[in-house]
Amino acid sequence: MHLDDKNVHPQVHALLLISRGVFIKDQFLDLLKDQVAFITGGGSGIGFRIAEVLMRHGCDTVIASRNLEKLTEAAKKLTSATGRHCLPLQVDVRQPDTISTAVDEMLKEFGRVDILINNAAGNFLCPATALSFNAFKTVMEIDTMGTFNTSKVIYEKWFKDHGGSIVNISATLGYKGQALQVHAGSAKAANDAMTRHLAVEWGPSGVRVNTVAPGPISGTEGYRRLGGSHAESAGIFRTIPLQRAGNKTEMAHAVLFLASRASSYVTGATVVADGGAWLTSANDVERLLELWSQEKRKDK
């Protein structure tokens, strides 16, 4: 099948372009035309790239997090790059009242919301014996409670009556019991279950709920914190079937598929976008403990 084949259905053509890492342009720009997406943690990293890719395909966005100054700068860059409207709003996903206020402002500005991307998260290396009760609680509150809080507010304010698409950003940490990641792995496992529960309960309202589970993604804060550069220099990524780390654009394309009508009959699913890493990569506890120890010394 070739991209210049006139018999290829437009949506199939669009997906072929996505698979090649190409932004859909011209006649395919309307994949998300005039839709609105609410993206938590959208001011940096994977969330920023998700916002950019959705906007390049016709979507206006709200990017939400606690740091309004950084969000405002990010929104300017996104609008300049894509020509679409990006509204920065201050939100703490642990506090439903702040989410409710932001959603009201979004609806006042755009009059609708079609897509929710739950991307806000926090992670770091830490052995369970050194993990404080408060640190574990904080990760659960941001990752798990934050995902539930934002989903529930947007469902009640809009999706319940109009339908929509929710994409949760997860991880593969809990698939094999990743060392030094009991906090994040537990939170993401809860989110994976939440995806399936909400897909069942909210499906009759026309709401699809899915998950993207990234592996090691270069150029992100998580990559730095979790020792990605060390793994790369040590040749550990050669154990991954695709033999490399992923990139932010690849994650954004996975989200684009799940957020758009291209996946209109997909719900309750998890798209694992990790190059096959979780299938083959072994736990190197000694190396991870050394990385944790190095970070701990830096913090003193």
TrEMBL record:
It is found in: Peroxisome. One of its GO terms (molecular function) is 2,4-dienoyl-CoA reductase (NADPH) activity. The keyword NADP applies. Its EC number is 1.3.1.124. It holds the Pfam family adh_short_C2. One of its GO terms (cellular component) is peroxisomal membrane. The keyword Zinc does not apply. Gene3D superfamilies: NAD(P)-binding Rossmann-like Domain. Keywords: Fatty acid metabolism, Lipid metabolism, NADP, Oxidoreductase, Peroxisome. One of its GO terms (biological process) is fatty acid catabolic process. It comes from the Eukaryota. It is an enzyme of class 1 (oxidoreductase). It catalyses: a (2E,4E)-dienoyl-CoA + NADPH + H(+) = a 4,5-saturated-(3E)-enoyl-CoA + NADP(+); a (2E,4Z)-dienoyl-CoA + NADPH + H(+) = a 4,5-saturated-(3E)-enoyl-CoA + NADP(+); (2E,4Z,7Z,10Z,13Z,16Z,19Z)-docosaheptaenoyl-CoA + NADPH + H(+) = (3E,7Z,10Z,13Z,16Z,19Z)-docosahexaenoyl-CoA + NADP(+). Belongs to the short-chain dehydrogenases/reductases (SDR) family. 2,4-dienoyl-CoA reductase subfamily. PANTHER family: PEROXISOMAL 2,4-DIENOYL-COA REDUCTASE, PEROXISOMAL 2,4-DIENOYL-COA REDUCTASE [(3E)-ENOYL-COA-PRODUCING]. Monomer, dimer and oligomer. This is Peroxisomal 2,4-dienoyl-CoA reductase [(3E)-enoyl-CoA-producing]. The lineage of its organism: Eukaryota, Metazoa, Chordata, Craniata, Vertebrata.
